[in-house]
Amino acid sequence: MIKSFIKRWKLIIKEDYRKFIFMLVLLVIAARINTLAGRYTSSSGWALAPDIILDIIPAINLEFIFVYVWLGIIFFLFLYTVLIKPKKTLEVLFHWSLLLIVRATFIILTHLKTPIEAAPMVFPTLFKGLRFTNDLFFSGHTALPLVGFFVFRESKIRYFFLASSLLMGFTVLATHQHYSIDVFAAFFIAYGTFKLGQHIMKKLGWLKQKH
Amino acid sequence: MNFSRIEPAILRSWRLEFQKHLFLILFSLFILVLSLVTSYNAGRYADAAIGVHVTDLILDNFGPYDLGWFYTYVWIAIAAVFFIYPLIFKVNKLHEWISQFALLAAIRGYFIILTHLSLPITAVAVNFPKPIAWFIFQNDLFFSGQVSVAFLGYFVFKESKIRYFFLISSILIGIVSLLMHQHYSIDIFAAFFITYGSYKIGNKLFRVFKKTN
Known about the structure:
The complex is a heterodimer.
Chain A: H1 2-42, H2 63-84, H3 89-107, E1 110-111, H4 140-151, H5 157-174, H6 180-204
Chain B: H1 3-6, H2 9-20, H3 22-48, E1 55-56, H4 68-89, H5 94-112, H6 145-156, H7 162-179, H8 185-205, H9 207-212
């Protein structure tokens, strides 16, 4: 089984190694842009805004879901792609990169501050680089799992990613880590970014199947 | 005297199409009224809610400039084209476009009550003529209705070259809104994404209209 898996991957890389190199470079650039944008948002204290949902629901500490379940979902999406649907790896990485770039652009625009009552969330040391403050619009926790929903739309696994996205949307609101517009707009922006990504991939000739 | 004998063929064809789709047009107008009532109440709520002024990367570096005539009258012209064009040239699809507009207005009505931001303190004052002024509010910021209506035109008229007019209009209105400090940047940029999503949802919701065409 392991041999056939390695053989399969060897074939994929042999066929598409240029695309993989390009993809990895793009992902590193996207992650770097996201880090710089996150540092920019964390560097200043901006305005706190009232919010119809946050004003009604008291902040609950769901750190475990916010940190560990979210990391689990992202790893699961990555591993599912690499192990079960290796031909979709390029697609998932491309959509993640694009979403990170779009999000990095959005978070530096309008300067809202993380709600004051939000419980501090501590990421494990290895992932501390992912944690910023005031990087609010739009919610990455909600948007990133949606990539799985869109990419695997022909498989039932998509419902898991949709449910994950909804769970994360609920969690970031319940923990007051985001304002409502950050969460609800995330669904629209993730979809628009996905369609844009599909369009770009088709133009590059990277998408053979119809979407 | 038989009026139909002297009625030009083009007008007759328009009248027949209009009559054929009359029920759907009336139904879409009903949806539009519901949506506008929702939107109106959401706007009033947003104005009454205590919001905050926020700094913004673009607003802090550009303007404000007084482009009120463009912001009001050019936008009114664009919105008029949005309805008059299908009314004259594509009457068989008028109900689809009214419904798409109604859905977008409803989604916007929902968004504007969520997070309470106030109009930027540096915003240039604008005066819309009545009765449009009755539907204009101060703090209905997220997301920009003007950009989204124009951008919706790009999708609903996708089979016609007029779509480019709407695309360019949406970009211009977005730029003008920012230069006048009438919106924050996220209101403008997110409007493009939300409009596209709304259009796609509308396509699924209003499929029944297409079947009856």
